[in-house]
Write a structure and sequence with these properties.
Length: about 110
């Protein structure tokens, strides 16, 4: 079980705020709401029984270029031959050659069923 690593990512927006609020009867909620849309961030990492590892914070959404960089420079050094990397079916994860590149290093890439 210690050889399994589960990769996942999440998107963050620092400008998010609640669109609705509660106030005392007959009064309005008077909080500020940003009028401009801020930048998005992506947090990506791999979870194993040893904890969270190979964490990277990216500016913007995850794309194939940033995913390839993450796998080759951040994640790969933490994996050993015989490890299994479990990924979901995000289109970015199915980048051509990634599973083969991992297999050359002795790491099995396994996609979750849809």
């Amino acid at each position: 079980m210690a050889r399994f690593h589960f990769l996942d990512e999440t998107g963050l927006r620092l400008d998010y705020c609640r669109r609705y609020g509660r106030a005392v009867g007959g009064q309005r909620v008077g909080e500020a709401v940003p009028l401009t849309r801020g930048r998005s961030l992506t947090l990506i990492g791999a979870l194993s029984v040893n904890g969270l590892g190979a964490v990277q914070l990216l500016h913007g959404a995850l794309n194939q270029r940033s995913f390839a960089f993450y796998v080759t420079h951040c994640l790969a050094p933490t994996l050993r031959a015989g490890d299994v990397l479990v990924l979901d079916n995000l289109a970015v994860h199915k980048l051509d050659g990634v599973v083969e590149w991992l297999a050359e290093r002795g790491v099995e890439g396994l996609f979750l069923p849809p």
